[in-house]
Task: structure prediction
Amino acid sequence: MKFIHHKGFVIVIAMAIFLLCACNSEDKEKTKSAASTSEGQPAPKDTSIADNEVRAEAPDALSKTEQGYALPHHANEFAQSPINIITKQTDKNHGEPLSFVFHSDINAAENLGHTIQVDFKPGSTCMVNGKDYSSKQFHFHTPSEHLVDGMTFPMEMHIVNMVIDSGKKDNPSYLVVALLFKMGAENNFLKEFLSKIPEKEGEKNELPLGQVKLEDVFSQIPKNEMKSYYTYKGSLTTPPYTETVQWVILKYIVEASEEQIMRIERMEGNNARHVQAVNDRKIFAQ
Result:
């Protein structure tokens, strides 16, 4: 058997082997690069999950990596809530102090997954300086959504009211009264309904009328402190982020026991939205 030795043929074979090795080396580098960051650390795994799985912990988060303080994906306007209230930058010239008069009955406690909600009976109202609102529900955020001078509180309660007969069915006006909570003594108001909240998401428990009384939470606040608050125009903090909300955040910090706050947090998770830009809005302090 004869071997044909040709100089040009040997050179071609050598070049082919060189190119094949180079390609293999490049592929290995790409694979290595894809598995690591530029700093040599393992690349983060894709943690995205279905939106309905996320909302149980953060209403506007789209992935597990955004749990905790959720990112404002749907916020494209300039009057979004919540905000960080910088006390030195508030405007003191707000005029007549607000006065609240609630005529309300509570008839149900719900576990919505992303929050704990207690519903007012239809016909419940809130009067603020002679203006009537229809009281709808109150719910909780753990931790607080509003910050004061950069400080976060372990819990925030929102009492949601709508303008009666506003004529804006598609874009109603809201008044939301917010109470900030700190850990301390057991809160008798929370004690009235915490045991009645269903453990299973999506369930509702009817409550006997008179068992839970909203005035019990305000009775813990000294009367002179009811006239001390921050107020500004903003939005709902959950979809659809409607920018027709007059916010009133009481300055007085209400106490609740660690066990009470942690029980609510266990049921609803971390459902606080990120603070939003104030832009050119005025924040009034009374």
